[in-house]
């Protein structure tokens, strides 16, 4: 919401050069970049610190994202604790096919659950670099974004009073349903959206991984995925109808489907365990163009969503944060607006590339379960090409690893 109305029952106004709305990977990375340059900023988050440090989300990081964090002094724990993944495995037609992508490209993935990265980033920002952050804020509103004097107001959870913060810029990092998306001016934001018409049942199991790598199962009954998260916890996905009720999936049904869809000749059954998370994700993508509106700069899911099909979401959010954080520092410390002027275009080039790959990979994952013999046949042809041609395998690996879009 953009407003010029008076703020009633409010405490004395504060001022920060930048207000960051949302304490996810993008918002906290921007905050850390600013604090490292001695630029004051305020991060606002509607949830508690405990909540964001425990919320399970993505876990796959590309090398470009890790290098970007490392250059900014934000990757020490990650580099010490994260798993390196150098290959993945596709299972279809009852057989298993390994793709050794590190051997093909010299690049690998890092697996580091998002809640661990958020814990690292918030500790560095708040506890080490002394950044200002307010948790549990309510009723956040944005004001005068189309002027040189924007502000942000919110209700303090401790006092119940409105707090007004004047600033030069607002970084919107609070996701698709956040207040910064709602503040987009009518008629000026173009939102492109694609709905896959499928759902994924997202699962966390208290069970050790059943393989040393990520598994993708293409089966007539639906896609299934196996993603190691730690020695004791594994992420699984099962294709399901969009909008399905997770309660329709008993533990017996889940494991029966996983065993069948990820089964292959010569491999032992999956190691089963208690399910500790079960939710349905409707697979869709969207892109907001442009990503800048006056003094509001969107980043991460507030600007674009890439379904977890291609494991790009957190990587794109971090890339946005690197560009926006560096651009804000250059503008505020050197009066150099080049980075901010080119921010939206630079981000969107990468975003659209990942959107296209997500669509291509969705057809690979879901074509065999579409019920359409033609789609199933072309899907199998694509898979055979990847494992029959080193050139095709390398091309797939480079997109899968994000090597074409490094920081």
UniProtKB/TrEMBL annotation:
Domain FAD-binding: 16-357
Keywords: FAD, Flavoprotein
Organism: Streptomyces osmaniensis
Keyword Cytoplasm included in the entry's annotation: no
Domain of life (superkingdom): Bacteria
SUPFAM superfamilies assigned to the protein according to its UniProt record, in alphabetical order: FAD-linked reductases, C-terminal domain (SSF54373), FAD/NAD(P)-binding domain (SSF51905)
Taxonomic lineage of the native organism: Bacteria, Bacillati, Actinomycetota, Actinomycetes, Kitasatosporales
A Pfam family this chain is assigned to: FAD_binding_3
Ubl conjugation found in the keyword field: no
Name assigned to this protein: 4-hydroxybenzoate 3-monooxygenase
Transmembrane spans: none
